[in-house]
Amino acid sequence: MRAVKILERLLYTIPIMFGVAVLVFLFMRMTPGDPVDIMMGEAGTIAPGEMEQLRKEFHLDEPLHVQLYLFLSDVLRGDLGYSYAYKKPVMALIAEQLPATIELAFGALLFGLIIAVPIGIWSAVKQYSVVDRLSMAGAFLGVSMPAFWLGILLILIFSVKLRWLPVTGRIDYNAGLEVVTGFYVLDSILTRNTTALVSSLKHLLLPSIALGAGTAAMVARVLRSSMVEALRQDYVTLARAKGVRETWVVLKHALRNALIPTVTVVGIQVGVLLGGNMIVEQVFSWPGLGRLAVRAIFSRDFPLVQGVVMVYALTFVLANLIVDILYTYINPKITL
Amino acid sequence: MQTTQTTMPWWYPLTIRLRIWAANIAGFFRDLAGHPIALVGGLVVILYVAAAVFAPQIAPHDPTKGELIRRLEPPVWAGGTMDYWLGTDAQGRDLWSRIVFGSRISLWVGFVSVAISAVVGVLLGCLAGYFRGGLDEVLSRFSDLLLAFPYLIFAIAVMAFMGPGMTNLLLALTFKGWVEFYRLARGEMLSEKTKEYVAAATAVGMGHLRIIVSEVLPNIFHSVLVLATLRLGVMIVMEASLSFLGLGIQPPTPAWGSMVSEGRDYLTTSWWVSTIPGLAILILVLAINVFGEGLRDILDPRLKIE
Amino acid sequence: MSEQKPLLEIRNLTTVFPTRRGPVRAVSGLDLTLARGELLGLVGESGCGKSVSMLSVLRLVSYPGRIVAGQILLEGEDLLALPMSAMRQVRGRRISMIFQDPMATLNPAFRVGDQIAESLRIHGMLNGSGPSLWPFGKARAEAERKRVVELLEEVRIAVPWEARRRYPHEFSGGMQQRALIAIAVSCQPQVLLADEPTTALDVTIQAQIMDLLRRLNQEHGTSIILVTHNLGLAATFCQNIAVMYAGRLVEKGPTDAVIEDPKHPYTRGLLECIPKLGGKREPLHPIPGNVPDLADLPAGCAFHPRCERAHDACQEGEIPLVTLEDGRQVRCLLYV
Question: Is the pTM of this model over 0.90?
């Protein structure tokens, strides 16, 4: 029964992706200026016949709806075009850089949760204590801080002044990592390469903090308020009246209910993380999709931008779907 | 005997609400005094606004022209001079002056983009929630679609392809910005619509627009205001992020984000060039958020996070 | 009234809540006894301290409220002197409690069967093994399931083997309260504290629940304290009635005696408030005045400002609880 509902939701993403593709397409075509001109301008001098050649290649001489049809059929075949600037198929470029972005988003999420969950619970249990006030103040700060500034601050403190952590990149060149999945941390575990593991973790730490601070702040606040709410409920009194140990009352009876609104916020944060990594990737020169996107945009590399935006949207939609599914497991009142 | 009949203009009840509000300003400030931190936040915001408005009077130096001989001077507490008390950047421009002028950009962009988002979003949301049907379907689907895009990608793409400049920047920010207001207004409209006073108004024969403006709008006004305050901080950070990437307002106009970006190359030697403009952003956004929270507590204690 | 030692004896219980306006004495010097198998009614208006006194018995008074004086003797043992770990053994095992709003008291995140099973596990009610938090082994799980179904049958919930897998929101109000009763009696307690168990339910369901409680009392000998503001309900159900006003006990005696011949003016006033079917049509006789502010109690007898038979001596001093010849108790200067 539930499997059917999940399938339904999955199918629902198709029209969304369709809409995204159309929107991206229209958007690209709507921007002023001849795309070929723009691309040519960035790439340097070109032989005379090549402009027409390229125009034909990109089907720019055809009517709009034909272009749309061609575009969509290409996408369905997995062909996202060819990047003129990089001289590689877009799909290949994206496949190269995507794992890095996912790894970063994951790291940020992990950091955010590790910080936020204990703090949220503790602040709720010991309301108005010093810990509570300090952490809520910290949360305010975390929400107000621009990620790029935090990143630079972290670099300043930990890389420049203290020299504990590296500034840019994903891993030390001489760690000799054999790439399997593209997720460096995972790969170093799989190939039992401890130097690589240490190195990749060191590189992952600061960007994760910069990206995850906002998440940590939001989740801590929501968790705290929903825990306070839950602890006020009658079922908590009943749990105590049954003789349940206080720790268990908090961690089982109250938390389980407090998670419901919290997971919603976490879901939103996943979206924010996937969207905000561009900035952090720039700051730390993290070789991921975000940095690729920025470069593509600056070099007016249309096909690449198209492809990247679509992949972003798809990842986003899928991530939301996963969170929604997770939510139905947590909240027994909702059946998708 | 002749009786004169006076009819209320349809926007009258809304003005009543606003007038009650104005009359309660004293009460409002009293409430605000009960939230000292929020009050401080509000004052800081006012200070920033004042700095933006009186920038030419406040800034001691020209923010766009620097003397290369004075490049990379530290702030006054780290060995610099009082004249350039926050130090100078790589081109010898006074950081303090640049920050003061930069506030103009950030505040202007922030306020205008939130205002536009709010107006468009609330309008569409009210219409969609009230009339339902095709309009609601189309708008809601469209807003769902927009939500599928991570917020920054959109803005970056717009700025990159349509070129820099204030109008494009505002367009980029509001294109997704209205969605939150739309959902808020629509949600509130949907729940208000089921309430009895709307049925009563319809029974009396009030026109639709009148119902929306005079009956429902005043009730959702508070939520909209709170949301607007909270979004303001987000917009300001977004503008800064765009400037950081080089996609915002172009140099030599000072913008905080681009100032941070310019300072990156000099982190090892002159940390203040990047750090201090970022601090300006942080303090402003923090003040806005703190004030917004206080506003929320005062206007709608039901929404209070406690 | 039996001659043997009372099962539960509350002596001089005083529970105070510190507030900004001063300490609120929710319960002042309460003396109450409960015999084995007795059905005792604790009656009074909202805010008179009946619920708080029951919470005090289980030491569930929420911070910052505190029990500042008194003893609560269960079979001679003072519960207030027990360490928390021992108190937890009493809760749910020897003294159980059910609350007013069943929807709020059941934890919405867990299945009903699991919530019943939790009590069984905590108090080690299965296979005579020690207390633990979750079942180990198939045999244990099987025994647990059986017992849960038995308990659901006992409280007359239909299709118990299915019901146990349901979530609270899928039950009606009456069924929820039955489930709570199942939780309460799962460990066969000696005392059941029922705090307004039927107030949130329809009248017809009310009768069913009261029947259930009566049956439990007859079949298992469980003593029940029924807390209610509904004097009529107490009259039909209880063997003895205790009346509380402003945190103090003002009258106690066998039900018939108290109803037909109320001694305390407050009790008399309560009875006269009840509109009677048939007979002459008369205006209702409410008790004049309002319930006193527990932070600012009148000196002397708390009821004297509203009492038609008050005289000067009622305005000061502690009014003692007097035992009359038939064993009844009254706190009123009229009987001193």
Answer: no
